[in-house]
UniProtKB/TrEMBL annotation:
Pfam families (UniProt xref): DUF6134
Organism: Zobellia uliginosa
Protein name per the record: Alginate lyase
InterPro entries xref list: DUF6134 (IPR045767)
Length: 204
């Protein structure tokens, strides 16, 4: 009888540990990176980006908050949510707010062997599969990669290796961003954010 009770308690404990493990796995990101946003060497904001993998699905999220003053005070918020399955892009959503008002929105979803891209309510399609996008630039140095997909613009961008672990990304409009890596992770970058341009450095 005591042995039976012990077995039941053991199964309960194992089940509880499993449930806690599953719950923890669903809540805790695998990796979180934080960056300071600077303009003319002045801190104007921050960026946090996370990577979470469950099975074959990896989800990336980034949140950026920038507050500065051009002619008038301006606050810009960026939110990215991007998911890959078996290292292929499945879905991406990008929202941008300016002074707490919606400014731009782009969604990308894989369906029927093509991507459906909706940018500010205008729809287009892309048939090529995508395995590298701009959010991966934080976590994976783009060695031997010539193109990446911009979740924000809904277009393919060109990547040019500059040597010494530095790269230039050129978007469809010819705007250029520069990226610099240490140990395979993005260390700092100069970004043309559309509404504002800034420098980004990993928080030490």
């Amino acid at each position: 009888m005591l042995f039976h009770i012990f077995i039941m308690m053991f199964k309960y404990v194992i089940g509880l540990i499993f449930c806690i493990g599953v719950m923890g796995d669903s809540l805790v990101p695998d990796t979180v990176l934080q960056y300071d946003i600077l303009m003319r060497n002045k801190l104007i904001g921050s960026l946090e980006v996370s990577r979470k993998t469950v099975g074959t699905v990896t989800t990336y999220q980034s949140f950026t908050r920038i507050k500065t003053k051009l002619l008038t005070p301006i606050a810009v918020d960026y939110k990215y949510v991007v998911s890959f399955d078996n290292e292929l892009l499945q879905r991406a959503n990008v929202n941008i707010w300016v002074n707490d008002r919606p400014h731009a929105e782009t969604s990308t979803s894989w369906k029927n062997n093509q991507y459906r891209i909706v940018k500010n309510k205008k729809e287009s399609n892309l048939e090529d599969s995508i395995d590298y996008t701009t959010i991966l630039l934080y976590f994976k140095e783009p060695k031997h990669i010539d193109y990446c997909y911009s979740e924000q613009d809904g277009t393919m961008n060109t990547i040019v290796a500059l040597g010494n672990h530095s790269y230039k990304k050129i978007n469809a409009n010819g705007k250029e961003n520069l990226y610099f890596y240490k140990k395979g992770v993005l260390h700092h970058a100069t970004i043309d954010g559309g509404v504002v341009s800034f420098e980004m450095r990993i928080s030490e």
